[in-house]
Amino acid sequence: MRPPLVSHRRVVRAFTRAGFRIVRQGRHISMWNGETMITIPRNDPVDPWTLKGILRDAGLTIEEFLDLV
Length: 69
Description:
Blueprint: H1 8-17, E1 21-25, E2 28-32, E3 37-41, H2 48-58, H3 62-68
Antiparallel strand pairs: 1-2, 2-3
């Protein structure tokens, strides 16, 4: 399954719901959940393949991500 086209704001909101919090902002947004660090680019929309890698690093499936969006 291919990840959807979503803005970086919606991606950040979804990961916030998943228990991540923003620890650093700049050209990219770094989020941490206590054990895993993920980096989200400030692109609108976030490239689907980039999002797929972020989801893999965070330990989420595309279906779980869609439930959070």
